[in-house]
Amino acid sequence: MEAFTYKYPVQVYFGEQAAARSLPKELERIGQNVLLAYGGGSIKKNGVYDELRSILQNAGKTVTEFSGIMPNPTYAKVQQGAALAREHGIDFILAVGGGSVIDCCKIISAQAKLDADIWDFEYAQHGSPTDFIPMGAVVTAFGTGAEMNNGAVITNEEKKQKSPLWGAFYDFAILDPVYTMTMPMLQVMSGAFDSLSHCMEEYMGTPRTGNLTDELNEATQRSIIRNIRATLQTPQDKNVRSELMWAAAVAENGMLKIGKTTDFQCHMLEHQLGAYTDCNHGQGLAVLHPALYRRYLPEAAPQFARLATEVWGVDPNGKTEKELAEAFLNALSAFIREAGLPTALSEMGIPEDTDYAAIARSTIRTGGCIKKFDDQYLIDVLKECI
């Protein structure tokens, strides 16, 4: 295990009625002007908006609304939010939604306090913002675990890049599983698979020997798989939903990255696919993972073989390491179909003539990746998924 420093700043309030229990006390500690940020308006249909507005009103806060944050949030939307925050002298941001809203607000928080363009500041000047508008998150769609870290994935449409930016940590996060009960099933499965993908990407990083971090990871993967299957059987089971919600948080609160350099090559490839097609993130990962992992197999056989036995329950008796590794790939592919997720880019409506070469060229290559891919390898992976 590599040397590490671990500090976790986010206060988590988990469970039913978490907002009613915790938000009034948190609001006592913040300034007067609150930016209420959310997406397409689903929170107005499921009652979350009314509940939060009532709590904000009872706390005597002046509320400015910032709505319409889209899936795959754009850099233009970040700048719009930052301008609004400056204009209204915002003291606190309350982000309500899933990973897109939560990511977007992390960068709004930083950009509103930064004179420079934050994209150029981080990528060209290699700077890190240090001043932020304080924030809280209310999670209504799980999977990304975005409320657990200070990283955000933002689509810069002008540059044709969907890339990480670094902003603020949330002061607190409210995770009420009831808020997720109206999510469409495909969205539930997409989010849950994103959680599983995070675990796999962390697991496949370096070092590749067994350690406590990897064993915690294996347990988290088993939990996600078990509870995805339970959700398919009983979609309205709140206990099952709470397990998936907490697993998403555990996958991104840093615990499964301790002492490792993570992989995340599949995520980087999917990000650029999203930059060119605006596809759903979890579904894109479901399509790409098996194809990418098949090309890892010779180098990753020991890790795949362990995943087969420790996560997927494959009986190792009489099987070689290579056979166990192949059994893992088969189990993963079958599970993706079982969850009702797409297995080809065409199923997602992505045209065959998409510029896969441009996607491959612009994909970030990750330090912990078990195999170093050149452009042609990534093009081949994408075309295999058509």
**Which CATH C-level class of the largest domain is it?**
Mainly Alpha
Q: Summarize the main sheet.
A: 6 strands, parallel
Whole-number mean pLDDT? 96
Question: Structural class of the secondary structure composition?
Answer: alpha/beta
End-to-end separation in angstroms reads 38 Å
Q: Quick one: CATH superfamily of the largest domain?
A: Dehydroquinate synthase-like - alpha domain
Give the C-alpha Rg.
Answer: 21 Å
The level of helicity is 40-55%
| Envelope shape | globular
Description:
The protein has helices at residues 18-27, 42-45, 48-58, 75-87, 99-111, 118-123, 185-203, 212-233, 238-250, 265-277, 281-310, 321-338, 356-361, 375-384; strands at 11-14, 33-37, 62-66, 92-97, 135-139, 151-156, 161-166, 172-175. By secondary structure, the chain is α/β, with parallel strands linked by helices. It has two domains: 11-180, Rossmann fold (3-Layer(aba) Sandwich); 185-384, Dehydroquinate synthase-like, alpha domain (Up-down Bundle), CATH 1.20.1090. The strands form two sheets. It has a six-stranded parallel β-sheet, with helices on both faces. A two-stranded antiparallel ribbon has the order 6-7. The radius of gyration is 21 Å and the shape is globular.
